[in-house]
Design brief:
globular, ten-stranded mixed sheet, 34% strand, nine-stranded parallel sheet, mainly beta, 380 residues
Length: 380
């Protein structure tokens, strides 16, 4: 018997080791590809045909037997879901508690960090993405609150946006500059008693309010002591879940969704625009979803457009108080929900004064109809 030389023996050993390593690498890579096939390069081929599934495609290649090659594609990755902020303008009857306020930004009252600053805000203050567990005094003006939750635990004007004493502006009147609240939530449900909630206003004074969810109090927004300086816009808000206390008499409370009690602007371009809101006043002792009364002074240049007004009593009310006049009140393309009272009230009412300067395209709300246009509401 002849023996191989030492060089040949070593070469064979080296080839065996290389082959073993190559097989191990193939097995490991193959296992990794199979186990990660949900997002990586993988393919399954039908042995009886040419069907391919997975992240691969059969392509033509004339240089190969059969004229086909297997081409692997890049893995498909899905980005994490995001909730974009609202785009465009919603009409009042398109608004829900999910598409305005904090939710479109993936926020909630519980998720926001606690605000620890002063509740009497200095002029020029901006508060963003905070939970405020008290009532805000914004009377200094030039104030912005955005993507925040105002959730007090005691009864009050939740946002004081006007002056009711002599400490600012020399007396009662609007704040010293504009106040803006947007993309936020004003929630009175943490106030411990029904009477306390019923005696609270979400906003009292004069403020621009956009895309805010307002609920749990007696009155959502009350424009009062507005003087004659600032114009205002209230747009794309949802006011609902209001409450009242007592029998609605002298010792009880009344509920308003949105109300104006003075807004003098006669002979000027000052205006109040109430546009594309959903306002539901159905908490008992209702004055109405949209209630204008000259309680503290004359009211001029108010336009209500694109809103949905729901709840009890007349959903739209326009009244003279103690002979104080109003002028240039306009209602355009609103929807009015059915009365929640038994017997039902009419949709709209005028008590004294000239009535609406314009009453155009106002309909009963009917979600089954195009653009929610039910029966037309005649001018009251």
């Amino acid at each position: 018997m002849t023996h191989a030389s030492p060089k040949v023996s070593n070469l064979k050993k080296r080839n065996i080791i290389i082959s073993a390593v190559a097989v191990a690498v193939v097995l490991v890579v193959g296992y990794a590809l199979i186990s990660s096939r949900a997002s990586g390069f993988f393919s399954v081929i039908d042995p009886n045909g040419t069907t391919v599934s997975g992240n691969a495609t059969l392509v033509s290649d004339a240089s190969l037997p059969g004229g086909k090659a297997l081409q692997f594609n890049a893995p498909v990755t899905t980005p994490p879901p995001t909730t974009p902020p609202p785009t465009g303008t919603l009409l009042g009857w398109q608004i829900t508690a999910d598409n305005i306020g904090l939710k479109p930004f993936g926020l909630s009252c519980a998720s926001l960090p606690l605000y620890t600053g002063p509740l009497t805000l200095p002029a020029g203050t901006t508060i963003s993405q905070k939970r405020i567990e008290g009532s805000i005094d914004a009377r200094a003006g030039n104030i912005t609150i955005e993507k925040s939750c105002i959730q007090p635990k005691s009864s009050d004007y939740i946002v004081s946006a006007a002056v009711f004493d002599g400490t600012i502006n020399g007396g009662n009147g609007p704040a010293s500059g504009p106040i803006t609240i947007r993309d936020s939530e004003i929630d009175a449900t943490k106030i411990p008693t029904q009477e306390g909630r019923a005696r609270s206003d979400g906003i009292r004074g004069l403020a621009n309010v956009y895309r805010t969810y307002i609920h749990g109090m007696g009155t959502g927004i009350a424009f009062a002591e507005t003087n004659n300086k600032l114009s205002v816009v209230v747009e794309n808000n949802y006011i609902t879940g209001l409450t009242s206390w007592g029998d609605g008499g002298g010792s009880g409370t009344h509920s308003d969704g949105f109300t104006i009690r003075d807004f003098p602007a006669s002979g000027t371009t000052r205006s109040a625009v109430i546009r594309n809101n959903r306002i539901n006043c159905d908490g008992g002792n209702e004055s109405g979803a949209f209630f204008i009364q000259t309680t503290f002074g004359r009211i001029d240049n108010v336009t209500a457009e694109g809103n949905l007004f729901e709840g009890g009593n007349y959903r739209m009310g326009l009244e003279v108080k103690d002979g104080t006049p109003y002028s240039n009140i306009r209602a355009i393309n609103n929807r009015i929900g059915p009365s929640t009272d038994n017997p039902p009230y009419g949709a709209a009412q005028v008590s004294g004064g000239p009535g609406y300067a314009e009453w155009t395209d106002n309909y009963m709300y009917d979600p089954a109809k195009t653009d929610a246009k039910g029966a037309i509401v005649p001018k009251p």
